[in-house]
């Protein structure tokens, strides 16, 4: 009986163990099946979202993955635009949207309101009138309105918008928007509170640019041109460099502006008639109708001499420069009277030497903008090194004088003690 009872117990135990094992196997198989079914489902969903789906019959294809990606990018762009510091006007304006160049487009009504119905005029150029615009957010911008009789036209307007949509540098004027509405063409720039270099050199303002500021302005301009020539892809030729197109911000840092006549280098071989401003145009360009980077270098050389002499090209600047070139110190005679006795004549001559090279009658003999930049930078570095040396000498002299003064006080005190004894 005991033997039979033991067999029953063993049988029940084995059966129970087998049951548990089978149940465990069923659980594991079920779990594995569900997991892989989920993975297959995810894979199918992923393939639906990323693979092109053909619609409208055989051979007609619509890439829905591109549509999805485009939608996501658009949503992200809208989010960034709403939070961008360059979103000057009301984000809910139905008239405003980003152009293909990425620059916001504004309605006529927006700009009319910001410029107080176009009454806040701050300047006039070949493009047309320039107005100061006060945005609801408190930001300030400059609005250039293309005049109907402007020497520049819609083509130049489109050139500027498309170029500045991809060109960004601290020494280039920043285009923050534009408007094509109600038959008007307008460009919206960051406001440059110190105006143009031309107005500072020849205007009626009482402010006089000192030599240090002029040297820094020359360096800023060279950095802007260097970006156009060597940093932009493809390179860009400005074609209308002049003091009126150099703007200065609140800290007197210069920025190159007005790209309406600019051309990418790939197109500079096309003859489209002479364009530019009298007094700044490269003579080689006049004779060949081919504008190159070295033509920009020539124009920059003229601007450098404007900084040195404060003589406008329309006031026979080049005649004065050519006469001054006859002697090594000739530039001293045409130096701006506001600078006489207030600057290093050595630095003036060094900068004039760079400008002379820029004006060489043979384009191949003119320096590249990189070489011009390095030349101006060396003048500034030597100036700073000299200032540091003078500062250290003055400090040492001050310390010596202080020690002498202390010794005199000590001697006076000892003399008083001896007299009292």
TrEMBL record:
Keywords tagged on the record? ATP-binding, Kinase, Membrane, Nucleotide-binding, Serine/threonine-protein kinase, Transferase, Transmembrane, Transmembrane helix
Q: Which SUPFAM superfamilies does this entry report, sorted A to Z?
A: Protein kinase-like (PK-like) (SSF56112)
Where does this one sit in the cell? Membrane
Binding site residues for ATP:
144
Is Metal-binding among this UniProt entry's keywords?
Answer: no
Q: Name one GO molecular function term.
A: protein serine/threonine kinase activity
Write out the coiled-coil annotation as residue ranges: none
Does this UniProt record's set of keywords contain Cell cycle? no
GO CC entries = membrane
> For this UniProt entry, what is the primary localization, expressed as one broad class?
membrane
Q: Where are the transmembrane segments?
A: 7-33
Please give the PANTHER family that the UniProt record associates with this protein.
CALCIUM_CALMODULIN-REGULATED RECEPTOR-LIKE KINASE 2, OS01G0750732 PROTEIN
Report the family membership: Belongs to the protein kinase superfamily.
Q: Which protein is depicted? A: Protein kinase domain-containing protein
Give the source species: Rubroshorea leprosula
Taxonomic classification, please? Eukaryota, Viridiplantae, Streptophyta, Embryophyta, Tracheophyta
């Amino acid at each position: 009986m005991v033997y039979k009872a033991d067999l029953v117990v063993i049988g029940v135990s084995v059966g129970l163990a087998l049951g548990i094992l089978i149940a465990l196997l069923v659980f594991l198989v079920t779990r594995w099946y569900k997991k892989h079914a989920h993975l297959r489902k995810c894979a199918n969903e992923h393939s639906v979202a990323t693979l092109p789906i053909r619609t409208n019959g055989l051979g007609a294809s619509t890439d829905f993955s591109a549509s999805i990606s485009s939608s996501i990018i658009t949503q992200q762009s809208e989010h960034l635009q709403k939070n961008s510091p360059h979103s000057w006007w009301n984000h809910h304006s139905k008239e405003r949207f980003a152009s293909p160049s990425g620059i916001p487009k504004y309605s006529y009504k927006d700009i009319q309101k910001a410029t107080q119905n176009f009454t806040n005029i701050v300047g006039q150029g070949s493009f047309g009138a320039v107005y100061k615009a006060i945005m609801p957010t408190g930001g300030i911008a400059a609005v250039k309105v293309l005049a109907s009789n402007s020497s520049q036209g819609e083509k130049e307007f489109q050139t500027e918008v498309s170029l500045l949509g991809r060109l960004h540098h601290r020494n280039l004027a920043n285009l923050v928007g534009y408007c094509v509405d109600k038959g008007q063409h307008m460009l919206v720039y960051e406001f440059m509170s110190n105006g143009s270099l031309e107005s500072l050199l020849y205007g009626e303002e009482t402010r006089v640019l000192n030599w240090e500021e002029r040297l820094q302005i020359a360096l800023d301009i060279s950095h802007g041109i260097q970006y156009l020539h060597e940093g932009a892809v493809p390179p860009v030729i400005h074609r209308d460099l002049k003091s009126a197109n150099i703007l200065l911000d609140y800290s007197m840092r210069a920025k190159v502006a007005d790209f309406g006549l600019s051309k990418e280098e790939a197109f500079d071989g096309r003859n489209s008639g002479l364009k530019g401003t009298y007094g700044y145009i490269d003579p080689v360009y006049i004779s060949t109708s081919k504008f190159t980077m070295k033509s920009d270098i020539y124009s920059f050389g003229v601007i450098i001499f404007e900084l040195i002499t404060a003589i406008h090209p329309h006031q026979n600047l080049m005649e004065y420069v050519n006469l001054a070139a006859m002697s090594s110190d000739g530039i001293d005679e045409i130096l701006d009277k506001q600078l006489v006795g207030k600057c290093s004549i050595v630095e003036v001559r060094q900068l004039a030497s760079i400008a002379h090279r820029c004006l060489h009658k043979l384009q191949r003999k003119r320096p590249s903008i990189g070489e011009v930049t390095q030349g101006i930078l060396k003048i500034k570095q030597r100036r700073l090194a000299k200032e540091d040396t003078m500062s250290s000498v003055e400090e040492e002299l001050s310390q010596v004088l202080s020690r002498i003064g202390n010794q005199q006080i000590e001697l006076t005190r000892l003399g008083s003690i001896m007299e009292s004894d």
